[in-house]
Amino acid sequence: MALLFIAKDPNTNGTQCPTAWVDDEAQEIVVQGWKAGEALLAQCLQSGPIPDSEAVVRLPIRMVPAIREACDVADRLGVR
Q: Would residue 4 count as lying in a domain?
């Protein structure tokens, strides 16, 4: 199966919006969000460096149900 679509942000245009998936082969929850701005990135860097292979993205709180669903799906699929 690999990538299982969970949900898009219901309050955006439906094409370019925060999205959640579960990748059962890679055993990961995958999210698309808005890029963090410089101010947010600076705050995040106070906790430690962010490797070039990683990124900080923002998701609206209204996406919590989708993230919970992704976690539940991952759990049911045995993703660890």
A: no
pLDDT tops 90 at residue 80: no
Residue 10 lies in a domain: no
pLDDT at 1 over 80: no
Over the stretch 21-72, which tens digit does the pLDDT of each residue have? 999 888 889 999 999 999 999 999 999 999 999 999 999 999 999 999 999 9
Short-list 50, 52, 61, 59, CA closest to 29: 59
d(CA 9, CA 33): 10
